[in-house]
User: What shape does this take?
Amino acid sequence: MGHRLLGACWLSVLAGGQLALAWRVLGRWLRTAGGRELQPARPDRPGPGEENRVAILLPVLNERERLAPCLDGLLAQGPEVGLILVIDGGSTDGTRELVCSYAERDRRLRLLDASPIASDWNGKVWGLEAGWRALPPDFPWVLTIDADVRPRPGLVTALLARAQGERVAALSLATQQELPAAPLLGLLHPALLTTLVYRYGMPGSLYEGPADELRVQANGQCFLIKREVLAACGGFAPLRHSLCEDITLARLLVRAGQRVAFVESGALASVEMYRTAREAWQNWTRSLPLHDYFSPAWHTALGWLEVLLVQALPLPLLTILSSLFAAGRRQRRQVPIWLLWPALGLNAGLVMLRLGALVGMRRAYCRPPWTYWLSPLCDLAVTLQLGRQALRRRHRWRGRLITRGNAPGGTL
Assistant: This one.
C-alpha cells in the first residue's frame, strides 16, 4: 500500500507541474490570439516611391531542384523590387546556371559568387552578409528570402504596406506550409511546428523593448527589415554563429527598442521546407530549439518542459491512467483510486487542448495529408529530439560542420 501512495504522491507532483505550465501556455495563447494575417495591398495604394524601394537577398547552396518556383515568384513582384541578389555559396548542382537563365529574363536579378563559405560561419548568414555588403546604398528596405519559399504576386507590396501601417522596423512571415504526399512527413512536420505554438504562441504579434526579447517570434524565410536598422545592428555579421539566425536578429532588434512584427502570410507565400520525414527530423530540429546567446539555460529548459508536460505527455499519461483506473475498479484493490481523478481529468483536458491546437493550425497548411490528424502521436519523440539537439553544440548541414558559437562577451 505504501508504494502505491508514494506513486500517487509523485503523480500529484507531476500533475501540479502540468497545471502550472498549462496556465502559462493558455495565457500565451490568449495574449497572442486575434492576429491579422497579411492582406493584399489595396489597389488604390500609391505607386512605389524612393522610400519604398526593396532589395531582395536570396542565399543559395545547391538549390537547383527547388529554386525555380521562388525565382518565378520574385520576378512577378512589382516595381518596388529594384534588385534581386542571389548569393551562391559554392553550388555544384547547376544552381548557378539556373539563376543565370532567369537573369536573362529580368535585369533586376543578379548572381553573386560568395564561395567558399567560411568554416566558422553559418552558411546562410555568410551569404546574407556577402549580399548585404554588395548592396547599393539606394534601397531603404531589405527582404531576405529562402530558396524554398514560393512568393505570390503582390507579396512585397503587401509586406511594405503592413510594415508602414504598423510602423515596424522589421516584419517576418509565418508562411503557409506545403507538404508533399509523404505520410510520414505529414505525421512528423505538424508535431514539430506545434512545439513553436506551445512555446511562443500564435503569429500576429508586435514586439518592442527588452521585455519582449525572449518572447519574440520571427522567420528568416521571409524577413523584411529597414536598411538603416540593419546597419545599426552591424549587418548580419553578429549572427554568424547562430543556428537560428532569424530569432537572433529579431532579439537584437527588440533589445535595441525596435518594433518587430510576425504575422501569417495567408495565401501570399508558401514554403516546401522538407520532402521527407528524415530531412525534417535531422535538419529542422537543429534550429527549432531556438537556443542562442540571448537564451539563458533556464528559458530554454522551461520552454522544453512546457512542450513535454503540456503537449507531449498528456496523451500517453491519459492512456496509462485510464488503464490503471479501470484495473483498480475491476480488481477492487486497496488503491486510492480517488487520487487518480485529478491527474486523469487534467490530462484529458490537455489532450483536448492539443486537439484544439491541431484544428486551429490546419490553416497553416495548404493541403495537409490525412496523417496530419495523427501527428500528436509523434509529440513525445519530437520533444525528446528537441531536448537532445538543444544540448548539442556541433551540427551537420549539407556536409558542413556548424558549431553554435559564443556571443560577444558571453557563452552559450
Notes: The chain is about 45% helix and 15% strand.
